[in-house]
């Protein structure tokens, strides 16, 4: 927020209150303060820019997938569910889901919140589309996972964290470490470093986690960078993987897959992730259904933002799993 004197701030509040709460006309406000109507209009605009006035449109009554969202909430005891319209254009669908996630995140943000962020294409899209007239100078975005290299470096957590912090006028803490190191001993050395330990402790104390979710490794962004190592480190457990959650591989029941991968990956472990009070998962695509279901079983999702087809498929898959018991 730009610097503004207490007197000017008081004037903006008074003008905004007269116009929006008392219903006064701009001409009446101008006479009250001996200023022109055009200046009143500029002051009202500034009141929005400074976050004194926020316009909230209640579109939930027009939301076409309200019934589906409520079914998913009830089925899985989730805090909140948002479903957007599906489309055959996956890029457009990802953007729709990201837009919904960006709006939801802005509604959740409070002063001094810490928001942990992971890498991936979907969370990156949230950072690309998010926009707010309000700055959040006391909010901190923190990278929770190590970074990719090569062609996927643009979707690593640090880059996404920087985008979110810059666009929202917030603070940022970056995790300068690779997502995967050469050995367990190397991981211990990384985690013993004061700065890395500090950043991960900030992530552990996050109020919100904003993350995507990986599907079966062959569909995963993570696999694009590390498939050979995933195959080598998971061995005969590879086929038990239905997805990754913050780069932790889970099976169809949400259990952590027994793998040497977890001895070398730089991220919060499953128990540390579970301790975060508000986990917002942004995921679309039918190839993610099993991994979403598994993450819900593991109590790793509080808020799910997805598309209609994925949401419908999730309910159908839950029904199949229940019948199979």
Write the layout of secondary structure elements.
Layout: H1 6-21, H2 26-33, H3 37-49, H4 66-76, E1 80-84, H5 90-108, E2 114-117, H6 121-129, E3 140-143, H7 157-168, E4 171-173, H8 184-192, H9 194-204, E5 208-211, H10 221-234, E6 243-245, E7 248-250, H11 270-274, E8 279-282, H12 289-297, E9 303-307, H13 308-323
Parallel strand pairs: 1-9, 2-3, 2-5, 3-4, 5-8, 8-9
Antiparallel strand pairs: 6-7
Helix pairs in contact: 1-3, 2-3, 4-13, 5-6, 6-7, 12-13
How would you describe what is shown here?
- This protein is α/β, with parallel strands linked by helices.
- The protein has two domains: 6-49, Arc Repressor Mutant, subunit A (Orthogonal Bundle), CATH 1.10.10; 60-323, 3-Layer(aba) Sandwich (Rossmann fold), CATH 3.40.50.1360.
- 47% of the residues lie in helices and 11% in strands.
- The chain contains 13 helices and nine strands.
- The protein has helices at residues 6-21, 26-33, 37-49, 66-76, 90-108, 121-129, 157-168, 184-192, 194-204, 221-234, 270-274, 289-297, 308-323; strands at 80-84, 114-117, 140-143, 171-173, 208-211, 243-245, 248-250, 279-282, 303-307.
- A seven-stranded parallel β-sheet has the order 1-9-8-5-2-3-4, sandwiched between helices. The protein has a two-stranded antiparallel ribbon with strand order 6-7.
- α4 (66-76) runs parallel beside α13 and α12 (289-297) crosses α13 (308-323).
- The longest helix has 19 residues, at 90-108.
- The radius of gyration is 23 Å and the shape is globular.
- The termini are far apart.
- 38% of the residues are buried.
- The mean pLDDT is 90.
């Amino acid at each position: 927020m730009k610097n503004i004197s207490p007197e000017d701030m008081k004037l903006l509040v008074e003008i905004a209150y007269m116009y929006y709460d008392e219903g006064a006309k701009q001409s009446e406000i101008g006479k009250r303060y001996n200023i022109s109507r055009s200046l009143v209009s500029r002051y009202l605009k500034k009141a929005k820019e400074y976050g004194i006035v926020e316009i909230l449109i209640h579109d939930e009554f027009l939301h076409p997938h309200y019934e589906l969202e409520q079914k998913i909430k009830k089925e899985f005891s989730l805090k909140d569910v948002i479903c957007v319209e599906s489309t055959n254009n996956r890029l457009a669908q990802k953007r729709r889901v990201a837009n919904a996630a960006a709006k939801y995140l802005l509604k959740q943000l409070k002063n001094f919140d810490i928001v942990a962020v992971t890498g991936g294409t979907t969370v990156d899209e949230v950072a690309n589309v998010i926009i707010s007239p309000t700055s959040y100078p006391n909010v901190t975005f923190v990278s929770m996972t190590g970074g990719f290299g090569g062609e996927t470096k643009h979707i690593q957590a640090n880059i996404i964290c920087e985008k979110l912090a810059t666009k929202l006028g917030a603070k940022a803490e970056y995790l300068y470490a690779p997502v995967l190191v050469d050995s367990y001993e190397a991981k211990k050395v990384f985690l013993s470093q004061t700065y890395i330990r500090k950043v991960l402790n900030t992530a552990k104390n996050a109020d919100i986690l904003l993350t995507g979710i990986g599907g079966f490794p062959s569909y995963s962004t993570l696999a694009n960078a590390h498939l050979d190592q995933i195959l080598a480190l998971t061995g005969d457990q590879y086929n038990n993987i239905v997805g990754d959650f913050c780069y932790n591989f889970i099976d169809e029941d949400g259990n952590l897959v027994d793998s040497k991968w977890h001895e070398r990956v730089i991220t919060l472990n499953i128990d540390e992730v579970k301790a975060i009070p508000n986990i917002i998962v942004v995921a679309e695509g039918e190839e993610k259904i099993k991994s979403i279901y598994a993450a819900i079983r593991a109590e790793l999702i509080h808020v799910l933002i997805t598309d209609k087809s994925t949401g419908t498929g999730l309910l159908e898959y839950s029904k199949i799993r229940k019948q199979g018991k």
